[in-house]
């Protein structure tokens, strides 16, 4: 079986195609569009312009899928932004009517669970904290003996943090403190208290981008998948102190498509590390999409 997964996030929309082989999901190819849906939310509704951008991207991805005769199933799902907007039903109906795509809405809890299943494909997640920093939300999972003991979805992500707290293009000391304060407040609201976990398993594009910066900053090889949390904290503080011009050159050289969201995502991750007294950050190369395939399509728990 070959599955096409369309992952509709708050910042990016991704198409990934997987082939099932001997019970494993092999990624054949992936493509993404930087749609920034969260930026089109006005008064709790996704604007007409935002809907058009989403429609255009999904139409493009559907055309890609339709060109492959051997794709057996197409599974579009949406997370924070589409999940939370007041005109969600209108959006889902439009996409179904125009493109024939039935978008599944993942709850925050379900998204967190799928991130855990997906991370386990490429990372040892038997103990510790797992986080998936998206554009509009951050999923946090506490793990003990390979099982989820608590999970929550924080209503802050790299793009929403930028929109809500950053004046200009880059995080400064003041906006960093405001983002950190909001993360702690959301943990309190979710009744998730400070505990000590030595390891953080980080999932998603924000984590992978942060790892790229870490490698560049400390002159490490591409095979490095682990970050020391104290060194990560030092790096985040140092980058924020730099002039906007130096920040711009740093990010443009490493991850230009995240010019405005990279630092907010790194601040969120750094605060999660401090909140749980994390010592080591393991960055997973797999996440929610793989979790969706293994859990919902291949029956792995």
From TrEMBL:
Organism's domain of life? Bacteria
Please give the biological process terms from Gene Ontology that the record holds: regulation of transcription by RNA polymerase II
Which InterPro entries does this one have?
Answer: ATPase_NBD, GppA/Ppx_hydrolase, Ppx_GppA_N
Ppx/GppA phosphatase N-terminal domain span? 17-298
Q: Which protein family is named in the record?
A: Belongs to the GppA/Ppx family.
Stored PANTHER family: EXOPOLYPHOSPHATASE, RETROGRADE REGULATION PROTEIN 2
Q: What is this protein called?
A: Exopolyphosphatase
- Origin species, per record, is Anaerococcus lactolyticus S7-1-13
Q: What is the lineage of its organism?
A: Bacteria, Bacillati, Bacillota, Tissierellia, Tissierellales
């Amino acid at each position: 079986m070959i599955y096409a997964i369309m992952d509709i996030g708050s910042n990016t929309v991704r198409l990934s195609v997987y082939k099932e082989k001997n019970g494993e999901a092999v990624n054949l190819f992936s493509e993404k569009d930087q749609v920034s849906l969260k930026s089109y939310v006005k008064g709790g509704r996704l604007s007409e312009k935002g809907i058009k951008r989403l429609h255009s991207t999904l139409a493009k991805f559907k055309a890609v899928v339709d060109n492959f005769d051997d794709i057996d199933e197409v599974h579009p799902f949406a997370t924070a932004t589409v999940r939370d907007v007041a005109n969600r039903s209108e959006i889902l109906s439009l996409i179904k009517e125009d493109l024939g795509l039935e978008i599944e809405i993942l709850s925050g809890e379900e998204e967190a669970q799928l991130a855990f299943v997906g991370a386990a494909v490429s990372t040892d997640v038997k103990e510790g904290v797992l986080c998936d920093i998206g554009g509009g939300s951050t999923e946090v999972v506490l793990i003990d003996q390979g099982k989820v003991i608590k999970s929550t979805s924080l209503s802050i992500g790299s793009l929403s943090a930028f929109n809500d707290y950053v004046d200009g293009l880059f995080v400064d000391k003041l906006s960093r403190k405001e983002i950190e304060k909001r993360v702690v407040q959301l943990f309190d609201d979710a009744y998730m208290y400070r505990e000590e976990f030595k390891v953080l398993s980080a999932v998603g594009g924000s984590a992978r981008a942060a790892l790229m910066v870490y490698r560049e900053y400390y002159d490490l090889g591409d095979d490095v998948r682990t970050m020391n949390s104290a060194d990560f904290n030092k790096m985040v503080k140092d980058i924020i102190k730099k002039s906007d011009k130096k920040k711009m050159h740093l990010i443009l050289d490493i991850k230009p498509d995240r010019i405005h969201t990279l630092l907010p995502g790194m601040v969120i991750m750094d605060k999660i590390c401090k909140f749980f007294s994390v010592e080591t950050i393991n960055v997973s190369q797999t996440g929610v999409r793989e979790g969706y395939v293994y859990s919902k399509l291949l029956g792995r728990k």
